[in-house]
Amino acid sequence: MQTTVDQLKKGEKAIIVAFNLDTIPLKLIEMGCMEGHMVELIQTAPFGDPIFLDMNGTHLAIRKEMAKEISVEIIEN
Amino acid sequence: MKSNPIKVALIGNPNTGKTSLFNQLTGLKQQVGNYPGITVERKVGSCSLGDSKNATILDLPGTYSLNTNSLDENLVIELLLNKNDNDYPDVVVVVTEVENLKRNLLLFTQIKDLEIPTVLVINMADQMEKKGISLDIPKMEIALKTKIALISSRKATGINDLKKIISNYQELSTEACLNASEIDSDYFENLKRIYPNQQNYKLWLVISQDVNFGSLNKTILQNNSFSKSDAELKRLQHKETIKRYQFINDILKVTKKTDPTIATDFQSKLDRILTHKIFGYVIFFGILFLIFQSIFDWSSVPMDFIDEQFASLSSWVSEHLPPGKLTDLIAQGMIPGIGGVVIFIPQIAFLFLFISLLEESGYMSRVVFLMDKGMRRFGLSGKSLVPLISGTACAIPAVMATRNIENWKERLITILITPFTTCSARIPVYTILIALIIPDTRVLGFLNLQGLTLMFLYALGFIMAILSAKILNSILKFQSKSFFVIEMPNYKIPYYKNVGLNVIEKTKAFVFGAGKIIISLSIILWFMASYSPKDAFYTAETTISETNSSLSEDEINDKIASFKLENSYIGILGKSIEPLIEPLGYDWKIGIGIVASFAAREVFVGTMATIYSVGSHEDEVNTIKQRMKSEIHPVTGKPIYNFASGISLLLFYAFAMQCMSTLAVVKKETNSWKWPMIQLFVMSGFAYIVALIAYQLLK
User: Fold this and answer.
1) What's the CATH number of domain B6-171, 3.40.50.720, 3.40.50.300, 3.40.630.30, 3.90.70.10?
2) A21 by DSSP, 3-state: which?
3) ipTM
4) pLDDT, tens digit (0-9, with 9 covering 90-100), for B184-228
5) Nearest residue, CB atoms, A25 vs list B103, B370, B485
6) Which residues participate in Mg(2+) binding (chain B) (predicted)?
7) Cβ distance of B275 and A43 shorter than 8 Å
8) Are B90 and B63 within 8 A, CB to CB?
9) Is B338 annotated as a binding residue?
């Protein structure tokens, strides 16, 4: 199932399929945001934003507005 | 024979233990300064490699890649591009850590492309067994064309292997490990034609971002048909990053094995609690409470001790030096002035201790994560919390800590409001004023009223900061994009060496920085108080004794002393500003203290000590507090430091922007005088109005 990272539920894993190159900063790409890499939602902050991700083994947090720009394919368990 | 030391640069991602390695290599043989012209910390140390070989180690700011986002990262790349720089390394040591090897290697491959001798350090090797990780080092060395040192910077293992590799750095390969120009061969060939003498990857770094590189003339590019737009350049950078990750993934596939059954999820369990909706906040505020408790309560024992020591030093000096005004200056101006700073060492040390514990443990990132949404309502970022917390120690590092806020508007607001938080320089002023005007009693049986007042002042500073952020957020109209990305590093038990060295270094900087200002100011003040443009000043003794012959000797001496002080340069200056501050309940002496405080707040106490010691004829040594307490207003006959004027003074110091160093740092960080000037006039104007209202209501 295809969706965006901000829609992931806690513990859900997905594969990055595409992202908006104009709005995603290079820093996030360097930290592992690229096609084919796995992303897992670890935790959401109180009030739902920002979100805590495991992206290709790196633990990082981004805001929902940025997470919206990353399309993923959820891995069925 | 001793050869020149080998120049080593330590480079690595944040949270790889780079600083621990630096401390391990250099110990106490390190110097911390600033790079000329910019406020990035420059840490250098020396290290013996054995065989009478030495190395100077430069600890560069942590960076995720050579594509720079900030001033700190810019510095790394500019150094590596400039062979003529004095700091240009003979050998680069790239520090990575076992668990994040994949991401850490990205930077390594970039540095390799610069064709500098490069060593790869894989840190936290002691964790490998526990995490079920095994590495094939020889295979990795071949693939990455380098030497690898497997170390643990905390347990100090592998350090000697690293030293050996460094001392034989000439044997290291300088060959790039992948060919980045493959991402667009045509483009790179065209570049090569225009700049035949430049190395390809260097060219690419300079073209794709805004860094200075001496001789390279970028304007040639603008008129070329093959030049690329910014969007195209970013696409290429993206391609480059993908290429590098492919290369790294291919290597790690054959050299790194992880046993999935061993992996523990202790970290995520901890995160579930520490970033929990309710417990997360409870723990965070609990920690804040602990910090303030330590500053106000635990520090009092060593502080009382220091206070006594300086008081006895003062009396020793005045007993043993020939009596005179110069001895007074030393015994009653300079020593109490310096004592007034030294006494805050315990509080400042506690503050820096807690801040570096929070940073080192990885907890600070969780606080950022927890608070981001709430802070955004005020035009701030979760990352603003780090400057606001470290602002309770000192606004200067706090303003510099705003650098990792990606959004310019959020960053600017954070810079502008940070000086409202109660920095350690305000503590001397607060403490002495509170002791003068607030009774030392307990309310509700257990809360100390003086401590409560101090806590209230901290809260006041923080509330003001948040309120002004809200106002600035609606005034500042410019839009800027948010690039909020923050690494959530693994929790670690803070390494005592890192914490200890950090506390020592920061405390030292505060004491010596403030000490210098206090000594020079007290000398200037003493001269200004001892000389006068008027002739009457020098004949005061005879004229006053003649005209007041009916008074006792003590009263005559008092009259002489106060006449001379009022007619000295400083008295004339003070009197000229008195009309401005009289409505706030201050006399001209406090006025001088306030003016001097614009250099730095903490000089207030020393300034008052100098002024009062010159203005008195008494031989006995009093503490500053006793002197201040006995000051009587000449007109009203009431104490100068009464409840109304004391509160007014406290509020003035809470809000006024009185710190030249902070203004200078804000100028550097915002690149304009506009913002520091706004801080100076708006904050100080506001302070004046609040102090005025408070005094007029309370008197």
Assistant:
1) 3.40.50.300
2) coil
3) 0.93
4) 888 888 878 877 777 778 888 888 876 655 555 666 666 666 677
5) B485
6) 23, 26-27
7) yes
8) no
9) no
